[in-house]
């Protein structure tokens, strides 16, 4: 059963007029943001946008109260985290304009360099998703100017590699992918900030597979083999609480099996992706199915095409 978050019951009372915001409010906001982030990972942005917006309304009222300088800084960062999450859920729901609005608000509130970098990373991902790898690359480079951890630099390098792959530039794509793995090896993954903790060894394998998948499409089909290896590692590692990421990896894995000429395995993997993503409300899922459907058409993979076609024809959920 999908997790339901009752914000009315969970929110602390606002301070009386002329009273101060305290650390209890900061802790509450971060706890609720973490819970909503977990719902997004498991069920997709469409499952929690309403709750995120309700919590943002609470923040608007709470921020108007006074606070000490230290608490104000922490509260601003916490609100920035929530706006970054709101932007990501909007992006996942197919609402690019709303996503960018929330990301810009996150930048206004953010007091931490890595949080600024992470928000710009998310802005770059919107560009990348909508066919703008050059714009995304610029955003990831801009994020790198304020990043202050190996972990964040690993995220940015991996995504720059993806951009170069989309641009058909093999050498810089592989160089940046190598840098991502080097940065990750030096990162304190266990101590990662909550907004960046998703990027673990399994997610690194997933984006490595995405880079190879894209190189297979733009440069050389032989990249399908290393893509299958990396994506297989990601699929095996993703837990149920990262259902959306696992579904994305399965879709890419199916595509690579098809590129290698194994239509039966491609169909079996795609069927697993469909089965495991049934509760995920994500407009991005449809977008990621499109190249698989096109390849199935081109190769006349009837079983795979029949599996995917109804999903592409179905109406999107009400975002």
Counting H and I runs of at least 4 residues, what is the number of helices? 15
Structural class by SSE content: mainly alpha
Stretches where pLDDT is under 50 for at least 5 consecutive residues are: 1-9
**Oligomeric form:** single chain
Whole-Å distance between the termini? Answer: 20 Å
State Rg. Answer: 20 Å
Overall pLDDT score: 91
> In total, how many beta strands?
0
Strand content: under 5%
Shape: globular
From N to C, what is the helix and strand string? HHHHHHHHHHHHHHH
Approximate helicity band:
over 70%
Largest sheet: none
Characterize the structure shown.
This protein has 319 residues and is mostly helical. Helix content is 73%, strand content 0%. It has helices at residues 7-10, 23-43, 49-63, 69-92, 96-109, 113-129, 133-144, 150-166, 170-186, 201-218, 224-237, 243-259, 263-276, 283-299, 302-313.
């Amino acid at each position: 059963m999908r997790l339901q978050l009752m914000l009315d019951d969970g929110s602390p009372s606002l301070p009386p007029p002329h009273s101060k915001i305290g650390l209890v409010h900061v802790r509450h906001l971060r706890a609720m943001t973490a819970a909503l982030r977990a719902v997004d990972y498991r069920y997709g942005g469409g499952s929690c946008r309403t709750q995120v917006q309700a919590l943002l309304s609470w923040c608007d009222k709470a921020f108007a109260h006074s606070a000490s300088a230290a608490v104000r800084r922490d509260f601003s960062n916490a609100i920035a985290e929530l706006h970054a999450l709101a932007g990501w859920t909007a992006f996942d729901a197919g609402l690019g304009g709303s996503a960018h609005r929330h990301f810009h608000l996150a930048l206004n509130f953010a007091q931490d360099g890595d949080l600024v970098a992470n928000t710009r990373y998310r802005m770059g991902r919107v560009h990348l998703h909508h066919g703008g790898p050059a714009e995304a690359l610029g955003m990831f480079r801009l994020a790198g100017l304020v990043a202050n951890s190996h972990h964040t630099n690993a995220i940015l390098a991996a995504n720059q590699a993806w951009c170069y792959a989309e641009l058909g530039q093999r050498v810089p794509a592989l160089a940046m992918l190598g840098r991502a793995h080097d940065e990750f090896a030096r990162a304190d993954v266990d101590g990662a900030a909550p907004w960046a903790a998703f990027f673990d060894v399994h997610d690194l394998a997933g984006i490595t597979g995405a880079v190879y998948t894209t190189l297979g499409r733009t440069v050389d089909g032989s990249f399908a083999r290393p893509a299958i290896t990396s994506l297989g590692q990601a699929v095996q590692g993703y837990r149920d609480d990262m259902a959306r990421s696992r579904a994305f990896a399965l879709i890419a894995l199916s595509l690579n099996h098809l590129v290698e000429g194994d239509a039966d395995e491609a169909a079996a993997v795609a069927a697993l992706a469909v089965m495991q993503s049934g509760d995920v409300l994500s407009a991005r899922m449809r977008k990621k199915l499109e190249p698989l459907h096109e390849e199935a058409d081109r190769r006349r993979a009837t079983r795979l095409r029949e599996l995917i076609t109804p999903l592409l024809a179905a109406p999107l959920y009400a975002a």
